[in-house]
Design a protein that fits this description.
The protein is mainly α. It contains eight helices and no strands. The model has no long low-confidence stretch (mean pLDDT 87).
Protein backbone atom coordinates (compact mmCIF):
# COMPACT_ATOMS: atom_id res chain seq x y z
CA UNK A 1 0.00 0.00 0.00
CA UNK A 2 2.90 2.34 0.61
CA UNK A 3 4.34 1.80 -2.85
CA UNK A 4 1.52 3.43 -4.77
CA UNK A 5 1.95 6.95 -3.34
CA UNK A 6 5.68 6.73 -3.98
CA UNK A 7 5.08 5.69 -7.57
CA UNK A 8 2.52 8.46 -7.96
CA UNK A 9 4.97 11.03 -6.59
CA UNK A 10 7.66 9.85 -9.01
CA UNK A 11 5.27 10.26 -11.92
CA UNK A 12 4.51 13.81 -10.80
CA UNK A 13 8.21 14.67 -10.64
CA UNK A 14 8.75 13.17 -14.10
CA UNK A 15 5.86 15.30 -15.35
CA UNK A 16 7.42 18.36 -13.72
CA UNK A 17 10.79 17.64 -15.35
CA UNK A 18 9.10 17.30 -18.75
CA UNK A 19 7.23 20.56 -18.13
CA UNK A 20 10.46 22.41 -17.34
CA UNK A 21 12.34 21.03 -20.36
CA UNK A 22 9.56 21.55 -22.88
CA UNK A 23 8.70 24.88 -21.27
CA UNK A 24 12.25 26.08 -21.89
CA UNK A 25 11.93 25.01 -25.53
CA UNK A 26 8.59 26.82 -25.72
CA UNK A 27 9.80 30.21 -24.49
CA UNK A 28 13.34 30.30 -25.90
CA UNK A 29 12.36 31.79 -29.30
CA UNK A 30 10.53 34.59 -27.50
CA UNK A 31 13.09 35.37 -24.80
CA UNK A 32 14.60 38.17 -26.89
CA UNK A 33 11.16 39.66 -27.66
CA UNK A 34 12.17 39.81 -31.32
CA UNK A 35 9.25 39.43 -33.71
CA UNK A 36 11.59 37.96 -36.33
CA UNK A 37 12.27 34.96 -34.08
CA UNK A 38 8.59 34.03 -33.71
CA UNK A 39 7.78 30.40 -34.46
CA UNK A 40 4.31 31.47 -35.64
CA UNK A 41 3.44 33.91 -38.40
CA UNK A 42 2.23 37.09 -36.73
CA UNK A 43 0.39 39.92 -38.44
CA UNK A 44 1.26 42.84 -36.21
CA UNK A 45 3.04 43.95 -33.08
CA UNK A 46 -0.20 43.52 -31.11
CA UNK A 47 -0.52 39.95 -32.40
CA UNK A 48 3.05 39.25 -31.32
CA UNK A 49 2.42 40.80 -27.89
CA UNK A 50 -0.57 38.49 -27.39
CA UNK A 51 1.52 35.52 -28.47
CA UNK A 52 4.35 36.38 -26.06
CA UNK A 53 1.85 36.87 -23.23
CA UNK A 54 0.28 33.51 -24.01
CA UNK A 55 3.63 31.72 -24.14
CA UNK A 56 5.16 33.10 -20.95
CA UNK A 57 2.02 32.75 -18.83
CA UNK A 58 1.54 29.23 -20.21
CA UNK A 59 5.02 28.47 -18.87
CA UNK A 60 3.88 29.59 -15.40
CA UNK A 61 0.93 27.18 -15.52
CA UNK A 62 2.99 24.39 -17.06
CA UNK A 63 5.62 24.46 -14.29
CA UNK A 64 3.38 25.20 -11.30
CA UNK A 65 0.71 22.65 -12.20
CA UNK A 66 2.58 19.44 -11.24
CA UNK A 67 3.46 20.88 -7.81
CA UNK A 68 -0.23 20.82 -6.93
CA UNK A 69 -0.24 17.04 -7.21
CA UNK A 70 2.78 16.50 -4.94
CA UNK A 71 1.45 14.97 -1.67
CA UNK A 72 3.79 17.01 0.55
CA UNK A 73 2.62 20.25 -1.12
CA UNK A 74 -1.05 19.30 -0.90
CA UNK A 75 -0.60 18.55 2.80
CA UNK A 76 0.53 22.14 3.40
CA UNK A 77 -2.78 23.84 2.71
CA UNK A 78 -1.58 27.44 2.68
CA UNK A 79 1.22 26.63 0.23
CA UNK A 80 -1.17 24.57 -1.87
CA UNK A 81 -3.66 27.45 -2.05
CA UNK A 82 -0.96 29.99 -2.89
CA UNK A 83 0.49 27.91 -5.71
CA UNK A 84 -3.02 27.15 -6.97
CA UNK A 85 -3.97 30.82 -7.13
CA UNK A 86 -0.73 31.67 -8.95
CA UNK A 87 -1.34 28.78 -11.34
CA UNK A 88 -4.84 29.99 -12.20
CA UNK A 89 -4.47 33.78 -11.99
CA UNK A 90 -0.91 34.22 -13.33
CA UNK A 91 -0.89 31.20 -15.62
CA UNK A 92 -4.16 29.76 -16.92
CA UNK A 93 -6.31 32.90 -16.98
CA UNK A 94 -3.99 35.28 -18.89
CA UNK A 95 -2.63 32.53 -21.12
CA UNK A 96 -6.10 31.36 -22.17
CA UNK A 97 -7.39 34.90 -22.69
CA UNK A 98 -4.36 35.73 -24.85
CA UNK A 99 -4.41 32.36 -26.59
CA UNK A 100 -7.93 32.73 -27.98
CA UNK A 101 -7.18 35.77 -30.17
CA UNK A 102 -3.81 34.27 -31.11
CA UNK A 103 -5.63 31.18 -32.40
CA UNK A 104 -8.31 33.19 -34.19
CA UNK A 105 -5.69 35.38 -35.89
CA UNK A 106 -3.77 32.34 -37.17
CA UNK A 107 -5.79 32.28 -40.40
CA UNK A 108 -6.02 28.46 -40.45
CA UNK A 109 -9.40 26.94 -39.62
CA UNK A 110 -7.97 23.81 -37.97
CA UNK A 111 -5.76 25.94 -35.73
CA UNK A 112 -8.55 28.40 -34.98
CA UNK A 113 -10.97 25.68 -33.90
CA UNK A 114 -8.40 23.28 -32.51
CA UNK A 115 -6.82 25.82 -30.15
CA UNK A 116 -9.82 27.98 -29.30
CA UNK A 117 -11.76 25.01 -27.91
CA UNK A 118 -9.05 23.94 -25.42
CA UNK A 119 -8.49 27.58 -24.41
CA UNK A 120 -12.18 27.93 -23.53
CA UNK A 121 -12.16 24.56 -21.76
CA UNK A 122 -9.05 25.71 -19.90
CA UNK A 123 -11.01 28.65 -18.49
CA UNK A 124 -14.12 26.58 -17.74
CA UNK A 125 -12.29 23.75 -15.94
CA UNK A 126 -10.24 26.27 -13.97
CA UNK A 127 -13.41 28.09 -12.86
CA UNK A 128 -15.09 24.81 -11.88
CA UNK A 129 -12.01 23.72 -9.93
CA UNK A 130 -11.95 27.01 -8.07
CA UNK A 131 -15.67 26.82 -7.29
CA UNK A 132 -15.31 23.27 -5.98
CA UNK A 133 -12.47 24.41 -3.70
CA UNK A 134 -14.62 27.26 -2.34
CA UNK A 135 -17.34 24.71 -1.59
CA UNK A 136 -14.72 22.51 0.09
CA UNK A 137 -15.58 19.72 -2.31
CA UNK A 138 -11.95 18.68 -2.59
CA UNK A 139 -12.61 15.47 -4.51
CA UNK A 140 -14.30 17.40 -7.34
CA UNK A 141 -11.66 20.13 -7.06
CA UNK A 142 -8.91 17.61 -7.69
CA UNK A 143 -10.77 16.08 -10.64
CA UNK A 144 -11.32 19.46 -12.30
CA UNK A 145 -7.69 20.38 -11.71
CA UNK A 146 -6.60 17.13 -13.36
CA UNK A 147 -8.69 18.03 -16.41
CA UNK A 148 -7.35 21.57 -16.32
CA UNK A 149 -3.72 20.50 -16.19
CA UNK A 150 -4.37 17.97 -18.95
CA UNK A 151 -5.18 20.98 -21.13
CA UNK A 152 -2.10 22.82 -19.85
CA UNK A 153 0.10 19.83 -20.74
CA UNK A 154 -0.95 20.24 -24.37
CA UNK A 155 2.22 22.33 -24.72
CA UNK A 156 4.22 19.16 -24.10
CA UNK A 157 2.06 16.51 -25.74
CA UNK A 158 1.67 18.32 -29.05
CA UNK A 159 5.46 18.51 -29.35
CA UNK A 160 5.63 14.75 -28.90
CA UNK A 161 2.67 13.82 -31.10
CA UNK A 162 3.89 15.65 -34.22
CA UNK A 163 7.27 13.85 -34.42
CA UNK A 164 5.47 10.52 -33.83
CA UNK A 165 3.06 11.31 -36.66
CA UNK A 166 6.02 12.06 -38.93
CA UNK A 167 7.84 8.87 -37.98
CA UNK A 168 4.68 6.84 -38.55
CA UNK A 169 4.80 7.84 -42.21
CA UNK A 170 8.22 6.31 -42.85
CA UNK A 171 6.90 2.76 -43.50
CA UNK A 172 4.60 4.19 -46.19
CA UNK A 173 7.32 5.49 -48.45
CA UNK A 174 7.86 8.91 -46.95
CA UNK A 175 11.57 9.67 -46.99
CA UNK A 176 13.44 11.11 -44.03
CA UNK A 177 14.44 14.06 -46.21
CA UNK A 178 10.82 15.08 -46.82
CA UNK A 179 9.77 14.84 -43.16
CA UNK A 180 10.88 18.38 -42.40
CA UNK A 181 8.71 19.69 -45.23
CA UNK A 182 5.66 17.84 -43.87
CA UNK A 183 6.08 18.99 -40.26
CA UNK A 184 4.35 22.41 -40.53
CA UNK A 185 1.25 20.83 -42.07
CA UNK A 186 0.93 18.33 -39.23
CA UNK A 187 1.32 20.81 -36.37
CA UNK A 188 -2.41 21.79 -36.25
CA UNK A 189 -3.46 18.13 -36.21
CA UNK A 190 -0.87 17.41 -33.52
CA UNK A 191 -2.21 20.24 -31.40
CA UNK A 192 -5.76 18.88 -31.60
CA UNK A 193 -4.66 15.33 -30.86
CA UNK A 194 -2.57 16.61 -27.96
CA UNK A 195 -5.45 17.99 -25.90
CA UNK A 196 -7.87 15.23 -26.91
CA UNK A 197 -5.41 12.54 -25.79
CA UNK A 198 -4.60 14.43 -22.58
CA UNK A 199 -8.26 14.79 -21.61
CA UNK A 200 -8.88 11.12 -22.37
CA UNK A 201 -5.98 10.11 -20.10
CA UNK A 202 -7.21 12.46 -17.37
CA UNK A 203 -10.73 10.99 -17.52
CA UNK A 204 -9.33 7.46 -17.33
CA UNK A 205 -7.29 8.38 -14.25
CA UNK A 206 -10.29 10.08 -12.63
CA UNK A 207 -12.52 7.03 -13.18
CA UNK A 208 -9.86 4.70 -11.86
CA UNK A 209 -9.49 6.88 -8.77
CA UNK A 210 -13.26 6.82 -8.20
CA UNK A 211 -13.34 3.02 -8.40
CA UNK A 212 -10.46 2.79 -5.96
Amino acid sequence: MKVRPARGARKVWVMLAAAVVFGAVLVTPYAGLDLADSRLDVRSGAHYALLVTHVFTALVALVLGPLQFVPSVRARRRLHRTIGRCYLLAGVLPSALAGIPVALLSGRLVTQVGLTIPAVLWLVTGALAYRAALRRDFARHREWMMRNYALTFLAVTSRIVVPLMLLAQLPFGVTAASIADRAPGLIPAGQVLGWVVNLAVAEALIRRSRRA
